[in-house]
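dumping this here before i forget
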Amino acid sequence: MDMLGVGDKAPDFALYDTDLKLRKTKDFLAAGRKTIFAFYPGAFTGVCTKEMCAFRDMHEGLKKLRADVVGISVDPPFANKAFAEQHNLSFPLLSDFKREAIREYGVVWKNLGGMEGYDGANRAIFVVDGSGKIVYEWVGENPGKYPDFDAIDKAL
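structure:
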């Protein structure tokens, strides 16, 4: 699938959270709110830790903007749970272990970390409104690229 853009409908997904509960796109959509779907390559890696902790630290500001964060990676729920616990992440982390969401959102990074055949998530941000429409989209040129939090803030 081609990469999604502003104005497109966010694809539906059904992914497991850190408590092995199946969560769907619609679970995160509510009228008058926006949701940040933050795709990240891997738990416990440098840039991912910095990014997810930045979202954690933005919690109060996001609350005022009526916005929520959902992290999505191909890591298993168990690794995401340990990652969330270690860094006190209070927002959901979802496991796309079947790599369906990264394909639907067009953010597959082939051979992540130089490992032949290991497809992971590229670092990407999709801000979605309550109706499921993408209102902001950013995809890194590579998984090591850090998102522009000021631009995300403006989109909210």
